[in-house]
UniProtKB/TrEMBL annotation:
Residues 212-399 form the Histidine kinase domain. Gene3D superfamilies: 1.10.287.130, Histidine kinase-like ATPase, C-terminal domain. This is histidine kinase. It holds the Pfam family HisKA.
Length: 399
């Protein structure tokens, strides 16, 4: 409706302007036509010394002001060598061209050429019919443009409306548009599908993260509660000291875990990713717990003294713990080798490697590693060994 009103309004303005142009142009043509009869009138006067001569069916020449008709006299005097118009938009309007010439006796005589405003028609004789035809053609053009634009806009808006309905629907798993849609709408649907997959992946990661955090916090809490209960059973100083040491060790581990998890969630560690900390073999406390939990697996750790890393101690120990636990989960017997340098960390095992059946289990254990690597500017890859069984987890500093 809005487009129709705008189209009709603009068409009326164009039609009105075009009509005025034709009217004014026709008046100018009549004026030039009237002036062109000057020499013809002078020749007529030389042949016939009459005071009024009909040069053509529409143009009359007057050779004195007294010879003018009463209607023409009423508008006298007329400017010399100019065309004067009166009532140009009226049916009884007229034009008068006033000039002077020297007759054959050497006398200066006036000349008045007159013609009616509507006496001549330089266009089609059926002016009204021509205007009606032009108006009809314009209306047809408007209708054609309206239908064309409606189909074009319908082809553009229909896929967008479909996408809107799919967004409102809770059952829609994948957004789709017709193959005839424009490329921009297809790209929009692809981006929506990409964002949906990203959202689902983030939700799954958050669930995995919550499950991991729950497990990491439940274990030290259970140790603390168990040690506290055991303390109440015996009053021996050695026994009390051992239980107290278990509580302190579990509390410190839980504190480190909570600190790392909060840093990941709040991303507080990004501003410290360029802060280097020197590590040695004594700063890594995972080898003892690994030997106790997996006695059939040979564990080796290679780290040079004073190796600078941009990980805090708690973060480095959590990274190694997760990587080693992941390797130990799929290595019943054999070896797990860990090598730490200032630019790379490598954990190699001789287990079953990566397959489709245990890929999800690998992902559950390594989510925290991916988060930590992303926060501190490290890359993380997990791949099968090329020439032997097992897989290798490789961390490399990007900057």
């Amino acid at each position: 409706m809005t487009f129709s009103i705008m189209a009709l309004s603009s068409s009326f303005l164009v039609f009105f302007s075009f009509s005025l142009y034709l009217v004014f142009n026709e008046d100018n043509q009549i004026e030039r036509h009237l002036v062109s009869f000057e020499q013809v009138a002078i020749q007529h006067h030389a042949l016939d010394n009459a005071k009024v001569v009909s040069i053509s069916p529409n143009v009359t020449a007057y050779f004195s002001e007294q010879a003018l008709t009463e209607r023409l006299k009423a508008q006298a005097p007329y400017p010399l060598n100019e065309v004067t118009r009166y009532n140009r938009f009226s049916e009884d309007g007229f034009l008068v061209f006033h000039t002077e010439f020297i007759d054959k006796t050497g006398t200066l005589r006036p000349l008045y050429l007159s013609v009616g405003m509507r006496a001549l028609d330089f266009g089609d004789d059926s002016w009204d019919s021509l205007m009606l035809v032009a108006l009809a053609l314009m209306l047809m053009l408007i209708a054609f443009l309206r239908v064309s634009l409606q189909r074009m806009l319908g082809g553009l808006m229909s896929p967008i409306a479909d996408l809107s309905e799919q967004l409102k629907s809770e059952k829609a798993q994948r957004f789709s548009v017709s193959s005839s849609s424009i490329d921009e709408v297809k790209q929009l649907a692809d981006h929506l599908n990409s964002y949906t997959q990203m959202k689902d992946r983030l939700v799954k990661q958050e669930l995995m993260f919550a499950k991991y955090a729950s497990h990491e916090l439940k274990t030290p809490i259970s140790i603390i509660l168990g040690a506290a209960n055991l303390q109440a059973m015996k009053q021996q100083k050695d026994f009390q000291a051992r239980q107290r040491q278990r509580i302190i060790h579990a509390a410190e581990g839980m504190q480190a875990t909570v600190e790392v998890l909060l840093n990941i969630v709040k991303q507080e560690n990004t501003e410290h990713k360029n802060t280097l900390t020197e590590f040695s073999y004594d700063d890594i406390d995972v080898q003892k717990s690994i030997s106790k939990r997996h006695p059939d697996v040979q564990f080796t750790l290679k780290i040079a003294d004073n190796t600078p890393l941009n990980f805090p101690p708690a973060v480095l120990n959590m990274l190694l713990k997760n990587l080693i636990d992941n390797s130990a989960r799929f290595t019943k017997q054999g070896h797990i080798n860990v090598e730490v340098t200032s630019q790379a960390i490598t954990v190699t095992d001789s287990g079953c490697g990566i397959s489709g059946q245990n890929e999800t289990e690998h992902g559950l254990g390594l989510l925290i590693v991916q988060r930590l690597c992303a926060s501190y500017g490290w890359s993380f890859t997990l791949s099968n060994n090329a020439h032997q069984a097992g897989c290798t987890a490789h961390l490399e500093r990007e900057s």
